[in-house]
Sequence to fold (434 residues):
Amino acid sequence: MPAVEDYVARIEGTCGDEKGVVVTFKYDKKDEAIARISKKAILKKSIAGIITEFVFQDISFRVFSSGKAIFKGVKNRETLNEILSTLLL
Amino acid sequence: MYENAREKIARFVNAKDSAEIIFARGTTEAINLVAYSWGLRNLKSGDEVLVSLIEHHSNIVPWEILSKINGFTIKYAKVNTDGTLNCEDFESKFSRKTKIACLSHVSNVSGVINGVKRIARVAHDHGALMLVDGAQSVPHMPVDVQDLGVDFLAFSGHKMLGPTGIGVLYGKKELLEQMAPFQGGGEMIKEVSFSQEKAQCNISWNALPWKFEAGTPNICGGIALMEAVKYLEHIGMAEVLKHEKALTEYAVKRMRECRKVTLYGSSDLSLKCGIIPFNVEGLSSHDVALFCDNYGIMIRSGFHCAQPLHQVFKLQSSARASFYIYNTREEIDQFVEVLKEIERA
Fold:
């Protein structure tokens, strides 16, 4: 059965007042992960084809073509896991 | 070879004696060593420790933790709006209560080079010691502990082509001899004898520098750091500094072409090492870092473990470009092209 861990290599917090969480997708799964996210989240804008901004369940996040995503305003790790589960699985 | 490494590093920073070179895990552990081995026994209520707002958290937090235990006061020296140290404020805060002054040689956020030689002289005039965080200076410029007149200097291997997990504390021999060990275990003891009569162990400490190196040392790390030092010496530290200053000057000039890029820190490049803090209008520093990452350009984003300095700059966070011996003007051109692409997007 697929799991979030199949797609996610690492989750870490950013520092700075605009605190967020950086999700790094597994290198060989990054394209699939981004494709799955694109199908479920609402596209807000794309910057140079490198940064794509999405909204999902009132949470705004940016996905980078290098295979990383920055989520801002997520309450806690459990909420993030729920969002990732919905988006990726 | 491990002891050869110690001797090589002693000569690299011009220590009088290799016994003044203590291997640690890095700058952070080296500063903690001073805080706990010297500070725990020598700082008390009524005493003052002088720290600047430029500091990396590793030169703030150990003193804050210790002040809660020993009850001394920490005084913070101001920083000018351009990121340079307010030397007048720093010097005015010295008094007979000041026992130690702690200052970074080069800011890890702004790249500003601080006048530690001058501050060390003032510290000694007041009977205080001087600890210098050399994490951003020792890898980038000639550093002579005797010329600077500092009592302690901490630096890390991984910032100077060495591996992670190895760093150095330089300390004046007469001070290290008076200090208690930092951690207990093997290597740092001369003898541990059990007294049947008292039903306890009598312990005597090993000689310097081993008194401060409990447990099996990071032998590989020490030797690897020696090889890194040999490599840097082959180039010449004056050449390293010259190269980085030339790159910084070029990068600042090129980055100023970008309309949405704001540079922070002093515009006097003679005061700076190869570090340029900046932000791009409309994007967080993390967005900028990940955008650059897409082109194989690594910069850092966030507070850089120096939140108080970001408060001085009134910044939520910053992006930071930095250079070393392996960087080139062509790489700066590529970096500026990426910044321009961010602006266009």
